[in-house]
What we know:
This protein is 39% helix and 14% strand. It has 332 residues and is of the alpha/beta class. The protein has one domain: TIM Barrel. α4 (125-138) crosses α5 (162-178), α6 (192-201) packs parallel to α7 and α8 (245-259) crosses α9. It is globular and about 55 Å long. The structure holds zinc ion (ZN). Zinc ion is lined by residues 28, 30, 74, 275.
Amino acid sequence: MRDPILQPAARTVTGPVAVDQLGFTLVHEHFAFNYPGWYADATLYPYDRTKVREIGLRWLGDIRAVGVRTVVDQTPNDCVGRDPELFRELSEESGVNIICATGLYFEGGGAPQYWKSRQGGGCDIATEIAEMMIAELTSGIGRTGICAGVIKVGTSRGTITPYERQVLKAACLAQRETGAPIFTHTEGPTMGPEQATVFAEFGADPDRVAIGHMNNADRIDYFLAILEAAPGITISFDRTGVRSREYSAWTAQAIAQLIATPGKDYASRIVLSHDFVPHMPGRPSQHTQEPDRYPTFVATGFRELLLAAGVTEAQFRQMTVGNPARLYAGRR
Ligand SMILES: [Zn+2]
């Protein structure tokens, strides 16, 4: 047995877990999510913790039954749904490891005004946001004593705004201090390569950065552009199950084709998840969930599509077990 002190560990909501114990990991899901501003409607539609708990236990049971051992909630600080104490209860009751995030959403979807007004007053917000992230990764979120385990950031459609650039820089500073992985939001299939370039510029370790939402794209050259912009970086197919079964089949074939790229080991640079949102605090949503976008799909139907496209069992295991473990392995 290896010395537990020397073994890299991920920060889960119940404490550190050795990365080789994380097992099958869904790297990007949500227990609940809505945009900033939902709270204006909270008189009529308050946050319903009991409901989030009930729904959470149901799908955690379902994913455990198909072999998933760890799930990452990627809700950033400025949206609603990040509830570390509830996550701890859900993890203890379900037996599934849960990791939660520290970070800020892209400018149009988040709540940037607090930081932008500080910047207008001459503050160095990259340093301030990094301080916030480091505190949440090392001491805990609020007074809960529960640490975040991943840094979440994002960018706008077709541009990285000056505010988002400061948030990306903060993520890199926080990673250098803590070793935590960085996961990103992208809008449409845009700015993935540009994000990779900014992370390289600010000294992030590409081995611990995953560029998100590859399932918004229809072209293999978009994936290759990211993989080539910062060698070692990971691309995250974390909206698996979106659109249609035909699109999922195309995605599986695209992944098989990437993996077959001569001279490259892209099987070690891909992770899979669903970006599942089972509950949106606020008024009942008009949004309907695609039938395949349920967090058992990667382990079941999508796995079959990958195997049919020529991906091996070992490569599937690499994408769902080995690569998440590497991303969470921390400072080496
Ligand atoms: Zn998400």
